Amino acid sequence: MKTFRFLKPEWKALLLVSLLLLIQVTAELTLPATTSDLVNIGVQQDGIPNALAPRLSRQGMDDLLLLMDEDGRAAVAAAYTLDNGLYRLKEGLGQEARAAAERALSLPMALLFGASTQPGGELILPGLRSGLLTRDALLERMNQQMPLKGETGAQFLRQAAAQYVKAEYQRLGEDLNQVRNKYLWGKGLMMLGLTLLSAAAALGTSFFAGRAGARVGRRLRAQVFSRVLSFSKGEIDRFSTASLITRSTNDINQIQTTSVMLLRMLLYAPIMAAGGIWRVTQVKTGLGWIVALTVALMVVLVVIIAGVVTPKFKLLQKLVDRMNLVARENLTGVQVVRAFSREGYETARYGVANENLTRVNRFINYAFSYVMPLMMLVINSVVLLVLWFGAMGIEAGRMQVGDMIAFISYTMQIAFAFMTMAMMGAIMLPRAEVASQRVNEVLNTEGSVKSPGHPVSLPQDSPGGLRFEGVSFRYPDSGEDVLTDLTFDIAPGQTAAVIGATGSGKSSLIQLIPRFFDVTAGRVLLDGVDIRGLALHDLRARIGFVPQQSLLFSGSIADNIKFADEGMEDAAMERAARMAQADRFIAEREEGYDSPVSQGGTNLSGGQKQRVSIARAIAARPKLLLFDDSFSALDYRTDLQVRQALKEQLRGTTVIIVAQRIATVMQADTILVLDQGRLAGQGTHRELMASCPAYQQIARSQLSEAELAGKEGRP
Q1: Cβ atoms within 10 A of the Cβ of 513, count?
Q2: What is the mean pLDDT of residues 429-452?
Q3: pLDDT in tens, 370-429
Q4: Phi and psi (nearest 5°) for 682?
Q5: Which candidate, 425, 414, 417, 376, places its Cα nearest to that of 292?
Q6: How far apart are CA 468 and CA 530, in angstroms?
Q7: Cβ within 8 Å of residue 582, ≥6 positions away
Q8: Tally of CA atoms within 13 A in the half-sphere of 30 that contains its CB
Q9: Residues contacting residue 576 through CB under 8 Å, at least 6 positions apart
Q10: How confident is the model at residue 138 (pLDDT cuts 50, 70, 90)?
Q11: Of 104, 379, 483, 642, which has the fewest beta carbons less than 10 angstroms from its beta carbon?
Q12: Edge-to-edge strands of the sheet including 55-57?
């Protein structure tokens, strides 16, 4: 799954979290067994765990030895020592020696206690002591009364031996309350310690999982943002801006949340389920089939739920994109909507997108609304089965109350582990997988415009001459060329203008120079070098670009003018502002160049934004200065002043101006006339007025013959 691949760089956190989860699960799985011991031993057996009593009377030990074989006597002799009439358990005994002594004592103690509860039991000890009753005869007699083999027999031996030790303590004057309380306090403190250990491990898991998830989100956001910045306009249009924003925010947030849950819960649940199943097998209750039934039902629920909702998650993300697209269009074009009184129509269009999204969300929520009740039904049914068959086992003597309590706890832990996996598998993972696919789609998309593997270097003082050589261009997924077989030269330091009717390809031409798009055919040469052979950074560092729609960034006016170089000196910034005729309105502001600019420059007029955009391009000191219809919001006087400043102060800079107004282009050194994507003419204003009908038509539609014959470019 793609979501898991995003976690690969966090393998250290994964190992650490796995270790902490193992500690947490071990502590939690030990608690039911400890609870079982509290009930079985602490309550039912007064804190006496087994037949291995710390002290036994001499008479009691002699009676027990009568019922042992040679191996049993040897094991007891190795474990106990006679001291002042009492047999005391030796300190520092190994595990094997203790186990052997416990086995040797359990059966004799159980026989003596069991026989004493039977009619005539008071005669058994004298009979054994006198030799009238043998060990084998007593065993045969007890086997007729109750089973001594199997799980039931083993349970009887443990409980009967504990009762014998209890009676022995009473004969020795031991305080049984103290024995019981000591055991209960010991187990209680152990449970408290296990709980604190589990809590500490859980806190550590949450901390490290949260940090790892945050790093995953940070890394993905950086990767997606970096990749989107490398896209050409074609890739951005293919995804759509609204979808890219959703993928960079909502989808990555979904992946980040799921990464935390994967580390915190999805690792925890399988460990808990496996550990719980293993623990259940250690509790001899004969109810293992209930656990198998529980696991089977949970797996079936997971498969059904995942199969139903996963396709809906894919549709959900597309509908979120659609709703964001409609919202973004309306927020961006709110003035147009109001101007044409289309609020009702756009509200209805947004309502359709909203209703479609709501319908899918409703279906998913309905599906999930059944999950919890069904799982709780399974869990409560399991509890009922355990109680029913557990009570039957207790009544038959096959299990103890504490064992049933432990079994219920383990079964619940297993059921909740599978429920967690079900919720993760049915809810979190499908959504995260869809989000991961969408993010991967962006990350795996290579920009159609990219730097060559071995770029050509141009000297820093290269003059900036430009040549289009048989250039044709069509937009991605378009069936026809926008520009066709363009060939022309612009000499270094020249001011060239591009003019033509709407839709003739002027903006398309200007966007080929900084490689916002690549040509479909032909070549664009900068100082004799194909621009596709230059590193993108090197190419664009030589270009100052002023787009058709002035775009400013939030910050200050100074921040925007110094956008190309944060370390730019104030003198260079102010010079650029003067050339762009922006210094006057900036000086009128109270904070001057530190005046704030809101997002998109909404607190500036159209002309002010254009002048700041022009100043930003000039301040970069480019070799090529491109204006994409960037004088449209300027009055004729300001337009002329900007062009004169460019001509006088940027003599070594090649300037290309796309414009609609004849007055803006008349003074250019060379004018390119486009007509339906083809070069209809090139020359000065006078040359084109004499030889180019397309130029004549545009010129005469804007200016009178007297104005055209007058001083070129002057109002």
Answers
A1: 20
A2: 83
A3: 777 887 787 788 778 877 877 777 776 666 777 778 778 888 888 788 778 777 766 677
A4: -145, 135
A5: 414
A6: 10
A7: 608, 611, 612, 614, 615
A8: 17
A9: 561, 615, 616, 618, 619
A10: low
A11: 379
A12: 55-57, 86-89, 80-83
- d(C-alpha 626, C-alpha 638), whole Å: 18
Confirm if 166 and 113 have CB atoms less than 8 A apart.
no
Distance between CA 146 and CA 477 in Å, rounded?
A: 88
576: left (phi over 0), alpha (psi -120 to 50) or beta: alpha
Nearest to 392 by CA among 278, 276, 295, 290: 290
Please indicate, yes or no, whether the overall pTM of this predicted structure exceeds 0.90: no
Describe the crossing of helices 636-649 and 606-619 by its angle, rounded to 10 degrees: 0
pLDDT band with cut points at 50, 70 and 90 for residue 665: confident
- Structure tokens of 23? 């500690």
Could you tell me how far CA 227 lies from the centroid of its own chain? 18
The DSSP annotation for 578-646 comes to HHTT-HHHHHTSTTGGG-EE-GGGTTS-HHHHHHHHHHHHHHT--SEEEEESTTTTS-HHHHHHHHHHH
Cα dihedral 176, 180, 185, 187 sign: positive
Residue where the block lists tokens 């925010």: 249
Cβ-contact 595, 557 below 8 angstroms: yes
Tracing tokens 């790093």 back to the chain, one arrives at 215
Q: How far is CA 653 from CA 221, 492, 715, in A?
A: 38, 7, 25
Q: Which residue has the tokens 């919202």?
A: 327
Mean pLDDT value across residues 175-193: 87
Q: Which residue type sits at 700?
A: R
* Distance from the Cα of residue 271 to its chain's centroid: 22
Distance of CA 86 to the CA centre of its chain: 68
The rounded distance, in Å, linking the Cα atoms of 645 and 580 is 8
- Give, to the nearest 10 degrees, the angle between helix 95-116 and helix 58-65: 90
Stretch (H or E) spanning 556: strand 555-556
Beta-bridge partners for 29: none
Q: Region of 260 please: left (phi>0), alpha (psi -120 to 50) or beta.
A: alpha
Q: In sequence order, what are the beta bridge partners of 655?
A: 495, 625
Indicate the residue type of 336.
V
Residue 81: count of CB within 10 angstroms of its CB: 12
Smallest CA-to-CA distance from 67 within 120, 119, 115, 104 is with: 104
Among 447, 585, 412, residue whose Cα is nearest residue 517: 447
Two structure tokens written together for 392: 């039957």
d(CA 260, CA 271): 17
For 498-527, the pLDDT digits (tens) are 998 888 888 899 999 998 888 999 999 999
User: Which of 554, 594, 558 minimizes the C-alpha distance to 574?
Assistant: 558
* Nearest-angstrom CA–CA distance, 167 and 184: 20
**Cα of 317 vs its chain's centroid, Å:** 16
